[in-house]
Amino acid sequence: MDKAFKKILVAYDNSSAAKSSLQSAIGVSLRFDSSITVVVVDDDGIDKTESLAFLNDFSAKARVPLEIKELAGSVFEEVLKLEKEGNYDLILQGSHGSNGWKSTLMGSNAFKVVSGSDCPVISVTEAASSPELKNIILPLADSRSTRQKVPYCIELAKAFGATIHILGISKGSGSETKKRVRSYVLQTERYLLERGIPCTTKEEYGVKVPEACIEYGEEMNAGLMLMMTETESAGIFMGTYAQQMVNNSTIPIMTIHSRDTKLAGAAGY
After folding, report:
1. pTM
2. Average pLDDT of the residues in 59-64
3. What domains can be seen in the chain, in order of their start residue?
């Protein structure tokens, strides 16, 4: 986890959600001394001139340098290509129904960025920007890989002075499910406390997981929620549910892949 989030890539389209994601990127960059690259993809539905004017003005007012790249082609393909070529540590994107990258990034294509990236992606809706990030939701599902989120969670909590709210959760309510999830919660709580990270714990079973996560995040006034993509067990965070979380959450969602090599061995507790 050395040099976490040193290179940030922001997918920008001049929408309100994209502006929120840019503000969130600034918040992260100030704590990790990150460089920020903003990509504007030439598309018929996007006023590139207006986008570039806003970005240059924003950079001057925020006193944060932005590297701006103008690209042409498929939005998600260009973003993912640039992420891999530039070895970026984090992608931020706006995402919200018809207010996302219009017909381009909204819905399925926003999720294509999430599912195709090698680095974590933070998806932000217009109302979800929270650069201060004082409360982080860490859902732990009924899956052995669910704890792979913890190293990133610790890095963010340290940088922002945040409290981590561990949420053990499952759509199942059987005794074995509860036993496994509770063990993950207790192990993670101990791991965080040993590293001086303030945390709370809560467990919910037999619930609709995405809705319950978002509701708890709102209750805790959370600035971020972390989730794995393809490995949070049995369809809980995949397919339709995952797209709902990315596109509809009132809380920024950081999605992380189990294939992320920076996580290798980092959560071996």
Report:
1. 0.88
2. 89
3. 7-124 (3.40.50.620), 135-263 (3.40.50.620)
